[in-house]
């Protein structure tokens, strides 16, 4: 090969250069080499494509787009020499030529999207055993990931082809007692009306926009409708105004009827615990008959546990042949759900079941490959409804609401739009809240707006502008936020109380390495706490030690992301205490805890699904490919009452201009 036009020495293989610059991992090269040996294929352009697919998968993309790669649009990844330079040296001078070489390879199977789509089934299976799949749109996948994506797509297409279910407008009205004269639309009510009429719906919204409140009312409506149907067997008519006298009747119906079996789930233990807490909080605020409330579960579980993870096997207990025994599944924090998990979840869903997805579409994507929530909500119209959606809502909304809603109607939109609701009014942050304004400016990539809020006189936002040359971390300032926590440790409060104290404050970092990276910051904080006398012993485990699990562990039942705090139990034996997904507290002997790291500071990625009263977020003083507006937005929205940013202005500006977009074929297929 001749790299005379590239920056690499002519005797250097492109993959050596990519390996040494860490653009690819050894594993990216190994698997495709292995496959090539297997079929004795020597086409280097196929090798290159396979390496890229694997490397992009490692960075969260489910596929590569041949045209984009060929044209140098590398989605934030860097390769020297550029893939197009290598291809040129291989005598490939057009995307078409590369496509043909791939099509001819025994390692690649072709997929013709137009002839293969069908809305009759919610799952997809591959006909070929080739490890790579090339679509007619020029997207190249690892076969397994292609299969996951197609399963999700088939499910969506099936849902789009379904009709609407009846919604009881009077019951809806009593869940949302609104002022008919008001000129404002209640988008939470519209979201409930819409979701109740569909088997599949997504409700997206930023922090405090009432997602939990809304789905709790949705569940109440669905339960109430079911109970009513059952109660109708007992008497001809049940008034929609629910009275105490109806309770006896309904409780009879309860025994007779098949109440909807509802499951609540979230991707991590932490997010499940928060859902448990917020659903029970939202239920308490609902003024509705007890039998209805009783039928709404309060305990959420993790997706892994719901699907029946068996750590010895790669398959979950629940799948297409053994679906979940549920009628309604609510999944929170869906931005964290990756493509394989979504495909497996959909596969395990019984055909008749409803699926309601909740999340903030603007947050960081899942750690593993895919951006399912982002893809599904890609073209969502803020506070608009489609003509078809509007027509479907006419039974559930009153005349005044329909009149107001008719002003928001858009004529045409892809079918997926009918399944989406977007909540944008925050009930946590008002128009004057620095955190709310900052999150909104960052989310819209407004550099000036962001700086204006940061420089403004807001009592819940503070910016510590750092110098690019700064190499010292002000640990003492960072550690201030942990004073109350250490006071509680010293008082030996109950583990649940200590967890509450820990949730008061969290240091977030954008990166892992370097002075502003999570490893260094944790080390520095621990050393500082030791010197200050907060840490009383030199042993590895001490009262107050805070850790985060880095893997799911079948022995303890703990999940990646679970936070454990160390305290002696009543027998003075040191234990690590975790809040389980059902809200209970459990203490483990330290020897049982494996795969963990300290968590006085955590990365923004790990903080997804958690909220803290006060947050300090530290950005590195050098550019990093992980820095983008989604990361900064996610960090800000972890703070409920106070947010402090330690960042250099140029680094911040640069990050705000960057959108980390993950490649997949889902967006195009759904929003075509
Ligand atoms: N329509 C409303 N009117 C008044 N308060 C509301 C309304 N909707 C929600 N709230 C209140 O706003 C707060 C946040 O609501 P909720 O927890 O439902 O939002 P969320 O979007 O689920 O929040 P999070 O970002 O924490 O997941 C709660 O205290 C809730 O009672």
UniProtKB/TrEMBL annotation:
Q: Tell me one GO molecular function of this protein.
A: ATP hydrolysis activity
GO CC terms in record:
exodeoxyribonuclease V complex
Q: Which positions are annotated as binding ATP? A: 205-212
Record keywords, A-Z: ATP-binding, DNA damage, DNA repair, DNA-binding, Exonuclease, Helicase, Hydrolase, Isomerase, Nuclease, Nucleotide-binding
Q: Which residues form the RecBCD enzyme subunit RecD N-terminal domain?
A: 22-116
Superkingdom is Bacteria
**CDD domains linked to this entry:** DEXSc_RecD-like, SF1_C_RecD
At the top of the EC hierarchy, this enzyme's class is isomerase
Q: What is its EC number?
A: 5.6.2.3
Enumerate the spans annotated as UvrD-like helicase C-terminal domain: 599-642
A single GO BP: double-strand break repair via homologous recombination
Catalyzed reactions: ATP + H2O = ADP + phosphate + H(+)
Its biological purpose is as follows: A helicase/nuclease that prepares dsDNA breaks (DSB) for recombinational DNA repair. Binds to DSBs and unwinds DNA via a highly rapid and processive ATP-dependent bidirectional helicase activity. Unwinds dsDNA until it encounters a Chi (crossover hotspot instigator) sequence from the 3' direction. Cuts ssDNA a few nucleotides 3' to the Chi site. The properties and activities of the enzyme are changed at Chi. The Chi-altered holoenzyme produces a long 3'-ssDNA overhang and facilitates RecA-binding to the ssDNA for homologous DNA recombination and repair.
Can you state the subunit structure given in the record?
Heterotrimer of RecB, RecC and RecD. All subunits contribute to DNA-binding.
User: Per the similarity annotation, which family is this?
Assistant: Belongs to the RecD family.
Kindly give any further remark recorded in the entry. Answer: In the RecBCD complex, RecB has a slow 3'-5' helicase, an exonuclease activity and loads RecA onto ssDNA, RecD has a fast 5'-3' helicase activity, while RecC stimulates the ATPase and processivity of the RecB helicase and contributes to recognition of the Chi site.
Protein name per Swiss-Prot or TrEMBL = RecBCD enzyme subunit RecD
**What is the native source organism of this protein?**
Marinomonas mediterranea (strain ATCC 700492 / JCM 21426 / NBRC 103028 / MMB-1)
